[in-house]
Design a protein that fits this description.
This protein is mostly beta strands. It is built from no helices and 15 strands. It starts with a strand and ends in a 5-residue tail after the last strand.
């Protein structure tokens, strides 16, 4: 599977720290798969009382249920265009490729599944979210476009994101704060729609 996105310039939606993660991945979108193989970028704004806010941006990968791992030798900044491919060699091994198109820096590595975990291969995702375990608000990110959203099956069938389910994100009050639209079969627009408190 593949996907490309631009690391967003984020701002606070209101009081408190905020976060925004953009990633691509295989599995995890339905109850038949207890794994998610994913790679992407995360952006955070952290309040430092009496000091300017701290901005953090980094790339990472995860083969859930193992914990995410930060890719320390792969710098990421707002405005950088990222391109990622994940290719499953088998149900327990995959090659992850990340390219920072803007800086020209790339990394490639082979991942082995955690113990007793195998890819099911029943879904692929192109995601923008506020990770639940971060316990932070979703950052205002404006518009983020996922391009080159293509996946292939082992039988050679191509899957395009534009034909998939577009899932909105809701805040704790049930209000839509992020929604996606299909621009083309390979281009998905994700738009922040939350209101400031």
């Amino acid at each position: 599977m593949s996907g490309q996105w631009t690391v967003p310039h984020i701002v606070f939606p209101g009081p408190g720290d905020c976060i925004c993660a953009c990633w691509v991945g295989i599995d995890g979108a339905n109850e038949d798969s207890n794994d998610i193989l994913q790679a992407g970028t995360t952006q955070l704004l952290v309040n430092r009382f009496g000091f300017p806010p701290e901005y953090l941006s980094f790339a990472w990968f995860e083969w859930f249920p193992a914990l995410p791992v930060t890719i320390t030798n792969f710098p990421v900044s707002p405005g950088d265009t990222m391109y990622c491919t994940i290719c499953a060699n088998s149900p327990t091994e995959a090659v992850v490729r990340l390219l920072n198109v803007t800086s020209g820096v790339a990394t490639v590595f082979i991942k082995t599944a955690p113990d007793k975990i195998q890819l099911v291969g029943d879904t692929v995702e192109w995601i923008l979210e506020a990770p639940i375990d971060a316990n932070m608000n979703l950052a205002k990110y404006g518009d983020v476009y996922f391009d080159s959203c293509i996946a292939g099956t082992k039988s050679g069938q191509l899957i395009f994101a534009g034909a998939g389910a577009l899932v909105p994100m809701y805040d704790v009050n049930g209000q839509v704060i992020s929604e996606a639209s299909s621009e083309t079969d390979q281009l998905i627009k994700v738009q922040y729609s939350g209101l400031s408190p």
